[in-house]
Amino acid sequence: MNVIERIQEKYGEMTKKQRVLADYMLENPDSMSFMTMKNLSSRTQVSEMTILHYCGALGYGNYNELKYEFRKYINERNKIEVQRENAYLNSSVPEYELDDKQNLLYQVCQEEFDLLKLLFAHLDIPSLFRGAEMMLDADCTIFCARGVSLQIADFLSMRLAIMGLPSIVINTELNDSVQSALPLLKGGTLLVPISLPDYYVMTTKVCEFARQRRCRILALTDSLEQSPVAPFGDLVLTAPASSRLFLNSPGGLLVLAHLLSAALDIEKSARHTSKFCSPEEFSQVFTKKMKGTR
Question: Has residue 24 been placed in a domain?
Fold first, then answer.
């Protein structure tokens, strides 16, 4: 019996306060995998002692055991969802589109070109520099993404490394990757969620947690209106991503990421500070060693 089934089974025996906790957990199972007891108490207006008694009523020894069970539940649920989505992963082009394959690919090329025209038509240069300043001012930049968005996160992290800026990448499909980064989400940290349709829920939940921890958030996505990460952003940069053959096209967002890194390099160069000299200092370690061996 998983944790959700256990809560549902015991719901009729619970006190009023315990039902408040149960309702919150049933509505927010993803958040429960990393939420602290203090935050849960604040969100539900239920004391920490009552939460501990509730854990015991469910058969768990402490709050950490309850969180463990939620993480286990989420992992099992994700495995089931992957199987359900397998039909999408194996999707094919409809037969009626295959009469003229070259013309079909030409249409796809035109659509990609149109996406880039739309990106540049609405490109906000001052916002790119604002995003660059957020990265420069942060103690550390944490990217979070999954799927094709993760490739863009890796690209930006590589660009930051070249410039001597600290960053890490969270793969929000991997629970260990999420959990290991949670202690770093605090004041002074910049979170950069990268989210395209189908807007993976764990990426959004990491944004929600980062907001609770008072991180600044620079969101990269495709739509201010539709994307669930947009409301969490102190700054939101968008690029169109619609595609007829796949769920989304990463081309526009990759160009946007490239331009953001260009703005970052320009702004960093203009600041003339030693804050970003770690690559040069690291290379000197090898130079000194080589000189010492002669």
Answer: yes
196 and 74 within one domain: no
Could you tell me if 21 and 119 lie in one domain? no
> What is the edge-to-edge ordering of all strands in the sheet holding 216-221?
167-171, 140-145, 189-195, 216-221, 235-238
- 10 with 153, same domain? no
How many domains are there within the chain?
2
User: How many beta carbons lie within 10 A of that of residue 145, not counting itself?
Assistant: 26
User: Going residue by residue through the chain (294 aa), what tens digit of pLDDT does each one get?
Assistant: 899 999 999 999 999 999 999 999 999 888 887 788 998 999 999 999 999 999 999 999 999 999 888 888 876 776 555 555 544 555 577 787 888 889 989 988 998 999 999 999 999 999 999 999 999 999 999 999 999 999 999 999 999 999 999 999 999 999 889 999 999 999 999 999 999 988 898 999 999 999 999 999 999 999 999 899 999 999 999 999 988 777 788 999 999 999 999 999 999 999 877 666 777 777 777 776 655 555
Residue at 179 is within a domain: yes
Residue 291 covered by a domain: no
Q: Do 212 and 72 share a structural domain?
A: no
Structure tokens at 200: 């993976």
The C-alpha atoms of residue 32 and residue 66 are separated, in whole angstroms, by 9
Q: Residue 209: which domain range?
A: 104-272
Q: Would you give the DSSP letter of residue 244?
A: S
Coil, strand or helix: which one is 22? helix
Residue type, 89: L
Query: Is the separation of the CB atoms in 193 and 145 below 8 Å?
Result: yes
The residue count of the chain comes to: 294
Q: Is residue 233 part of a domain?
A: yes
